[in-house]
């Protein structure tokens, strides 16, 4: 998706959603991290740069495997929470854009982008990735999405978000329908591709928090509208299901390398 087509061009700022993001966006399943480690991502001899790190969900989860992580994000509020949540972890964070990091050339074995690649300027990010990667370095692009056509809860949630934010373009995702993982075919080639689904468990609080933290709600709407949205959405959610409940998600992992 082109950046100017996201939410029909209206501004959003994940810094506004940092509180909810820090509490409710750590939804990625253990299986995802294990699959990454099993294919050689996160080893203790690797230096990894996480683009669009947000509150540092990915580097914090992978830290136990031993790699040396740096996380960057353009939203200073996100990085502030990342630092707080990474106490006692040797993870470096920096506020900067992914397209112009200011980091050293040929510095990283792996560059990761988890749920963030659609937000980058593709013309500018590709040369920056090439500059930052070591020889034989890899880029890992991950996308995790709920499936509205396979979950009544998700279907109704998307309809509800669109009432409050009609310009939100995050609705209607279909299984295996995200071309943001297929990047710059003339520069990169896919080395490993993993695609699977998993049911993730939520309760009323964690799912409502997850939705508030999404781009279409607290990153865009005024705070008083977010509060109204949350109150009314919880009423809808409680009519739809008992807690806990499961939401099916698709997890896509692409590992790419620079063409030689």
Features:
260 residues, alpha/beta, Rossmann fold, seven-stranded mixed sheet, 8 helices, 7 strands, 32% helix, globular
Number of strands: 7
Sum up the overall morphology in one term. globular
Kindly report the CATH topology: Rossmann fold
Largest sheet: 7 strands, mixed
Helix content: 25-40%
**Strand line-up of the largest beta sheet:** 3-2-1-4-5-7-6
Low-confidence stretches: none
CATH C-level class is Alpha Beta
The CATH superfamily title = Vaccinia Virus protein VP39
Would you tell me the structural class of the helices and strands?
alpha/beta
Report how far apart the termini are. 27 Å
What percent strand?
25-35%
Number of helices: 8
Mean pLDDT metric: 92
Provide the gyration radius in Å.
Answer: 18 Å
- How many structural domains can be distinguished in the coordinates? 1
- Which architecture per CATH? 3-Layer(aba) Sandwich
Can you characterise this structure?
With 260 residues, the protein is of the alpha/beta class. It has a single domain (3-258), classed as Vaccinia Virus protein VP39 (Rossmann fold, 3-Layer(aba) Sandwich). The protein contains 8 helices and 7 strands. The chain has a 7-stranded mixed sheet with strand order 3-2-1-4-5-7-6. Helix 5 links the parallel strand 4 and strand 5. The radius of gyration is 18 Å and the shape is globular.
């Amino acid at each position: 998706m082109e950046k100017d087509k996201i939410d029909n061009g209206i501004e959003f700022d994940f810094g506004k959603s940092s509180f909810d993001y820090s509490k409710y966006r750590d939804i990625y399943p253990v299986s995802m991290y294990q699959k990454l480690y099993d294919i050689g991502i996160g080893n203790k001899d690797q230096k990894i740069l996480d683009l669009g790190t947000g509150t540092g969900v990915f580097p914090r989860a992978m830290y136990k495997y031993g790699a040396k992580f740096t996380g960057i994000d353009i939203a200073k509020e996100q990085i502030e929470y990342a630092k707080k949540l990474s106490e006692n972890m040797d993870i470096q964070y920096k506020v900067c854009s992914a397209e112009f990091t200011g980091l050293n050339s040929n510095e990283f074995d792996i560059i990761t982008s988890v749920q963030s690649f659609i937000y980058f300027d593709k013309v500018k990010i590709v040369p920056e990735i090439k500059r930052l990667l070591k020889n034989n370095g890899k880029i890992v692009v991950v996308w995790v999405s709920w499936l509205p056509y396979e979950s009544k809860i998700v279907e109704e949630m998307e309809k509800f978000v669109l009432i409050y934010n009609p310009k939100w373009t995050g609705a209607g995702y279909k299984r295996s329908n995200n071309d943001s993982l297929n990047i710059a075919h003339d520069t990169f080639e896919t080395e490993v591709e993993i695609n699977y689904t998993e049911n993730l468990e939520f309760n009323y609080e964690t799912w409502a928090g997850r939705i508030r933290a999404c781009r279409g709600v607290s990153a865009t709407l005024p705070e008083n509208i977010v509060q109204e949205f949350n109150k009314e959405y919880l009423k809808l959610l409680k009519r739809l299901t008992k807690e806990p409940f499961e939401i099916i998600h698709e997890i896509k992992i692409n590992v790419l390398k620079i063409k030689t």
